[in-house]
Amino acid sequence: MKSLVFLLAMIMASSAAAASLSGELRKWHKVTLSFDGPNSSESATPNPFTNYRLDVTFRHAASGKVYRVPGYYAADGNAANTSATSGDVWRVHFAPDETGTWTWNASFRSGSNVAMADLPDAGSSAGFFDGDSGSFPISATDKTGRDFRGKGRLQYVDKHHLRFAESGRYFMKAGVDAPENLLAYTDFDGEFKTDGREDDYVRPYTPHIQDWSNGDPVWQGSKGKGLIGAVNYLADQGLNAFSFLTMNIDGDDKNVYPYTSYGERLRMDVSKLDQWEIVFEHGTRNGMYLHFKTQETENELMLDSGNLGNQRKLYYRELIARFGHHLALNWNLGEEINGASLQQKQAWAQYFYDNDPYRHHLVIHNGATHYNMMGDASKLTGFSLQLNAYDFTDNFAMTKDYIDRSVAAGKPWVVATDEPGDSRYSLRPDSDPGTSHTDARKDALWGNIMAGGAGVEFYFGYALEQSDLTCDDFRSRHSFWPFCRTAVQFFENNDIPFDEMSNANSLVSNNGNNANRCLAKPGDAYIVQLRSGGSHTLNLSGQSGNFRVRWLDPRNGGALISGPTLSGGGTRNLGSPPDSTGSDWIALVESTSGGTPTNEAPVVSAGSDKSASLSGGTVSVTLNGSASDDGLPSGSTLTRTWSRVSGPAAVSFSSTTSASTSATFTAAGVYVLRLSASDGTLNSSDEVQVTITEGQPNNQAPQVTAGPDRSATLSSGSAQIPLAGSASDDGLPTGSTLAVSWSSVSGPASVTFSNAASSNSAATFSAVGTYVLRLTATDGSLSASDETTVVISSSGGGGTTVTVAAQDAFLQNGSNVNNADLRVENSSRKRISYLQFDTSGSSGPFTSATLTITQRGDVPSGKMQLRLFATSNNWNEATITGSNAPAKGAEVAAYYGDIPAGVALNFDVSSVVTAPGIYSFILDTDTSRDVTFASSENTLLSARPVLTTTGSGGAPANAAPVVSAGPDRSGSYRNEPVSIPITGSASDDGLPQGSTLSLSWTMVSGPAPVSFSPANAAATNATFNAAGSYVLRLSGSDGALASSDQMTIDVVADIIDNEIPTVSAGPDQAATLSGSAVSIALNGSASDDGQPAGSTLVTTWSRVSGPGAVTFADPASATTTATFSTAGTYVLRLTASDGELSESDEMSVVIEDAAPGGGSPVTFAATHDAYTENGSRFNSSLLRLENSSRKRIIYLQFDTRGVGAVTAPELKLTQSDDVSSGSMTLRLYAATSNSWTESTITGTNAPAKGPQLAVFTGDISKGKVLSFDVSSHVGAGAIYSFILEADSSSLDVSFASAENSATSARPSLIATSSAAGAAPLLPGAGAEDPGGFASMLSSIERDAAGQITLTASGTPGYTYAVQRSTDLIEWFPMGLAEADAEGRVRFEDSAPPQGSAYYRLTEP
Fold it and tell me: What does the pLDDT read at residue 1029?
C-alpha cells in the first residue's frame, strides 16, 4: 500500500493550470470551460467515459441560482476537425441565464463506473483540476430575430405551451419529423458509413449545398455544407423545428449512434459527437427547436434490458453533457415505446429530471398510450403524438384527448403531433401530393393548434420518394412549407394569448372534430377555423363590449384582413371570408376593450423579386420596400432594417434603415434579402429574391407549344390527326441545335407518329379513347415540353365527342388578352370572352351539344348574369381586338346565380351546333362583378373549355364501363369497427340501348370481412373490424360488358391501450431437505390494467431449470407452495397473461442436502465473458453464437481459487433473446490461455482452442438452460477459460451474459467443494501479498445454534476485511478481523442467512 499511496501523491502534485474559457460571455450563450486532465483515449483503460467524472457547479450570487453541470471527455479539444480519438482535454458547456458575475467550481472524480454513480462524492479525487474554481462576467444578450439566444431558454411552465425565459413569449412549433435518420450523414466521422449495415441510407444532402452560405460553419475544411445548408433551408422557409434519432441500433436504419462502433455501449465517438454539436449549434442560432429522440421501439430494451443501469445512465449523461446547454429542445424517451414497463419508463424520466441542470421539456412517443405516466406518476411534461389516419382526421381528437386527460391528472401536458398521417404516405412530396397538402394544412397543422396543442412536426411516410429514411432534399415538400410559415407568423406577429386559450368548439356553428373549430379565451380572444369556409356564427353570449374580426388566409398567408365588428351578448354572424369563400379560413376575434386596440406587429413588404446583370463586376438594384405600423405601444418608433439572408457574397445597402434603398452586388447568384420592422415590442419581416447574372446572357429553356387539343372518329379501324406544334430557342449554348420529339404520355393504345422528330407531324390512332401527346424540345442543355389532348370516338355516326376550344381569348376594354384565363366583367373594365370549336372530325348530325366552362381564379362575391351568343368565325385568338371582333349573333343560352370556386357551368347550344363544323361564341355579362374561367391554355387540362356533341348516326359499338376504385387509403383501428370513406368513380357510354350501369364493391383479400354502405355506389364507406391490409374491388357492368378496378386499404392498429401485466415471483429462497422432500411457500404477485376489455389475468408457475422435478400445489395461483425432492439450484418462473400480452419474473431456490459431510455446492459467476463477431469484440448483456457469414464465438472465464479441489463441475448457460429456431450443434472447448479480458478480446488476441470438453445438439427454445460437463478440465482451485462455438449453419442463438439484468440467467460454474463447509476466500490483488492471501488456509464451522465461525491462517498482526455473499456476485462488508501473534484469524457470524453463504477476506 505504501507504493500505492506514493503514486497517488505524485498524481495530486501534477495538478493542471486553471481552465480555459471560450464563447461569447453573454446571457443565453454557450460558455465553455476546457481543462487539461489525464491523457486518455476512446479505447483506453481506464475507460475515460465511465471511470472519470467531471461536474462543474456554477453559482450566481445575486440571484442565488446554482447549476451542477456534467462535463465530458473531449479528446484533443478539436476532434470535429482532427478526428482525434485521444488527448487530455475535458470540457463542460454552460448557458448562463443571468447577467453579472458567475463563479464555478470543478469536481473531477475517478473510480470504477464513477460517471454513472448517483452520489456527488462517489469514487475518489482524480487530481489534476479537481477543486479548481474561477469566475467570469456575463453581459446582456445582443441577439435578435430567429436566434434563440435573443429569446432565452424554452421552459415548461405548467401550461400546454413552452415559454421563452428571456422574451416571455410562448412557442408554437412547425417543423419536420423526417428523416428520422437525419444524422446518417456522409460528412460525419464513424464506421457506420462502411460497416455493411444499411449503408445505402447514408446521404450527403447534396441538394442543400446550394443553401450553405459564406460564414456558415464547416469542419475538416469543407465538410458539413449539405446538412448545414438543409438547416438554413428549413429556417428560410419559416420552420422552427427538426427531429432526429440519436440511436437507431437494431432499428430501420442502423447508422446513427454515439458509440465508437455498432456493438459498443460504453465508449463514445468524440469527433462524431463534436460534429453533431456543430449542426445543433447552427440550428439554435437559426431558431430551430431540437427534438432529441433517444431511442426507438426496436432498441428500447437494448440498454440494460430496459433498466436504468450503467449503459443507459452513461448514454443519457453524455447527451445531457454535450447537448443540454441548447436553449430549445426536448428529450424524447423514445419513439413507439410499447415494451418497457411503467417502472422502467418512470426511471428514465427521473434520470433526466435529476441530471439535466436546465430541466428541459421531457416527452415520450406513443406505442402504448402512456396515460399512466400523467400527473405525478412521472416527470414527463408532455407527449409526442403519432397518428395513423391518411387524411389526418384523427389528429384533432387525439390531441384534445391527451390535453384533457393531462389536465384531469393535475399536470397540463405540452402535446405536439410529431408524426401525423399514415405510415405509408403522410405528407406526400410535391411530385405526387394527392390531397395530403390540403388535408395536412386543415387537420394536422391547424387540427393540433385548434385542440390546444403545441404544434406539429411532419412525417414523410415510407412509400414514396424522399421518404422518412431516404429524404435528403426538404424542397421535395417546398409547396407545403408556406402553410407552416403562415401559421407560425400568425402567432409570432400578433399578440394572441394562445397559452391561455382552450378548445371551445361549441361556440362556433357547424362545429365538430373535423368541422368548424374554436380556440378561446372567452371574453378576450377567439380563433375560429372555418374548415370549409362559408358564413358562420360565434356565440358571444355573456360577453360585453365590442369585438373586431380579422381574417387570416391559411392557404396564401399575408396580412390580416379586417372584417366586421361584433357586439357581445349573443350569437353573432362572423360574415363571409374575404374571398374563396368555399375554402378554409381562420378568423381572429378580439375584444377591443372599450376601443383600446391591441398592439399589432408592423406590416412589412420587401417588394417584388428583382433581377440584374453584372456590369464591370458590380450592379446596384433598387429595393422598393415598405413598412407601416399601428402606432402602438404608445410613443413607440417604427424601426426598419435590411439584411442579407443568403447568397454567394456580401451585399452593401445605401441605407440599411430605410425601406426604400439600393443594394449593390459584386458576384452572380441568387440572393435573399430581408426587410425587418419593429415597434419595440413586436417584429415582422418580409423577404425579396434578387437574381444576379453575369454580364453575358444565360441559356434559357426552349419555348414549346404542342398546338390545340383535337378530336377525331375512327374510320376503318384508324384515325389520323395532323399535329401543329412549334418550338423555338435562344441559340444557346453556342453551336447547339434544337431537337424536338413527339411521345405518347397516356391513352388506351399505342400512337404512331409520321415523323416524331418534327413539330409538324401526324399521329395515327387505332382505338377509341382519350390520349395525351407531348412535344419535347431540347438545346442539349435545357429542355421543355407541352402537351395536347386528343379524343378518338367510335365510328358509325353515333356516340359522344368532346372537343376542346381551338381558339379562345378575352378583350379588356378592347385590348387582346390571350393567356390561361377567360374573364368576364361589366364595370369600368369591360371584359368579354370569345371561344371557337372545330367539330369537323366528329360524326353527325348532332342530337345534342353542350358548351362547358370551368371556374379558375377570381370567384365573384355574389350572383352573376352570364349570356352566351353565337357569332361568326372570322377571328383569331392572337389578333382579335375591339376593332375587329365579330358581332354578337343570337343569344344561345344564359346563366344566373353564384359561381363558386371550381364549378363547371354547362350551356345547351344544341340550337346552334347541329352538324360537324366550326362554331364561335361570345360570353358576356350584365353584372359589374368579375369572374374568371380556364382557357384552352390553362395548365389544368380538365378545366379547359369543351364542346360535347352527341351524334345520331348508326349504332356505335358498346364499350365497357370505365371504373376507378380511387386512391389507396389507410386508417386507424382501435379495437372497434372503423369506417373509411372511399371515393370511387364509374361511367359508361349508355350502351346497350336502355341499359343501366350497375356497380358493386367486394373484398378481394384481407384478414376479416368488410361491410360496404352502400355496396352498389361508387362513393361508399367501408367498415373494418380488424387491423391488416385489404384489397377492395369496384366492379361495373352495363349488362353486356363489365370492368373493375382495385385499391388497397391499410388498417393500422392505433395506439395500444393494453399494458403488459406486472409480475413479481418474489425473493430468492433456500431450504434444506427434510427426509426426502421439502416444501417452501411462494409469494408471487401479478396485476394488470384490465385490458383487453373482458380479459382475465391468468398466472402460471413453471420450473425453468433445476436438477429435479418441482411440484406446485396450485400452479395457477401466484401464492402457492413448491415441493422439491432433489438438492440443487432451481429457477422458477411466474408468468402472467391477459390473453394478448404476457410478462414473467423468475426466482432462484437453493435446496441443500440434509446429511452432513460430502461437500457443499459452490456456484461461481463468470469473471469475464464476451463474444466476437468476425473478430470484433462485443461485451453486452448477451452472448451470441453463430457460424454463417457472421462468425460469432463465445469466451468465458471463471475463478475457482480459494475452494480447493471440486467435483462434478458443470458450466450452465441460459438462453436469452434470440432462440435457435431449429437444431444446432454447440461445442465447448478449453481455452489454452487465461490472458484475456472481456474489455479487450478481439479475433487477433483471443486464446486458442484446447481440447473439446462437451457437445450439445438440439433445439434451443426460450429460457432453455444448457449444462456442460467440464470435469475433464476443472479440478483444483484456479482460473479456467472456455470457448463455445457452433457448427456451420444458418441458425443463431444468444445466451445471457454476466451483465444480463436477469441474475438467475447469468453464466455459472457449479461444482461441489471437496471439504465440508469450506467457503472460498479470494486472494488479494497485486504483486505484493502482505496479507498472505496466496498461502492462506481456511475452514468454516456452523454450530447447533446456526452461528458460523470462520477460521483462517494469515499474517500475524495484519487486519482483514470480512465480506459475505449468497451468490458470489454481490459482496457485503461484515467487519474487521485481526490475525493474532500466530497468524490465526477468527470471525463469527451470529446471524448467517438461510442456505449457502460464502465469505472472503480482503484488504481493508
Answer: 87
